[in-house]
Every structure is written in C-alpha cells, then in structure tokens.
Write a structure and sequence with these properties.
single chain, 199 residues, mainly beta, 2 helices, disordered N terminus
Amino acid sequence: MQGDGQERETVNAIVSIIGCHAGASPSDILEGKMSDIRDIGMVFWAIRSWKARPSMVIGLAAKQDVTFCHFVASSGASNAKPLGNSRSTTVRDIAKEWSTDKENWNPMPLGMREVTGKLSDGMGHALVFESIRIEQGVLDLSDYCSFDDEGLPARTGLGFSTICVKEKNMRGHPQQLKNSTRELSAVAKLRTPFAVWLR
C-alpha cells in the first residue's frame, strides 16, 4: 500500500469497499463515524460479508498487536455520490444490540450514532474501530492473499465487499485480478472486541 500517511502495514489486514449508504456519500459516512470516535472513543462500522464475519476478524486480529482496515473505492469508482434512489433506512434496520457470540447481547454503546444496515436476517455485523484516518493513496490487492486460503489472491465481489487478507505477493497468480489497484480513501484501526454481530 502506498499513501502519504505514516507506515501502518501489518501482516494481516481488512480491505473494505466504501460506497454510498442510505443517501450518504462516503465522505459523509466517514465524518459521522469519526465524530463518534471523538465523542465516545469507538465506533461500529456495519458490514455484510461472508469473508469478514466476526469470528474470522477476531481470529485475524488475535494474531498481531495492531490491525487496520483499508477503505478503498470499487474498481473504476471515484468520487462516489449518493444515488437518487438510495434506499431509506427503516426502523428495523437500526441496530439495537451487539454481541460477539450471538448468545450474550448488549445494548448499543451510549452516545453512538445509529448504526444501520440489513439486520433482519441475523447476518448483520460490524467492525469495531478506535480511529479512522483519511488517507489518499493506492492499495494493490496483488500484495495480499485471502486470509482463509493463502493459495488464493485477495479479491472482493458480490456478497463480500469486505475481506480479510494476509500479506503475500500474488503477482502472476492465474486468478489474480487484471486490475488489482484500488483508490485508497481511509485507514481505520481496530480495537477490541474487533467485530460484533448486530440485531
């Protein structure tokens, strides 16, 4: 990863495509989340990805002292703006509780803004951050393999726009993306419990 900020590479990391949500632009979303961090010292970032479920994220973070999430634009996307037909958030989409194991549930942290997403099917979850830094640069996915299968290059797709990755040179792999570079928007630092289920 190349950027103009401080060196922050770690062996394991998370890569997440950032886009519009409920009519808000990526920059608006980031500002709201950073405001929560300033106010209460942490924030939940809702995701839906079978390649970054809480157990996987927790296992990844447990292998190192510090874990970062790199927010990138999707392939060919730049300066995304809210869509006119963005789905409005309904009451059932607002998280009321969080859990690390789906058995013991806790109320959402006091002072945290509403965390929204598709939660009714029990698959909603979130990453837990202690800091978010706006950082412009380029991230090359060919520098990473899939965290759960080191034989496969890191790649995002439908249903897994957030992925757990591990540093490994995957250039020349037959399944490597033709365009593996992504525009970097921000870098977030995870904190315990690293990832949670939402409902």
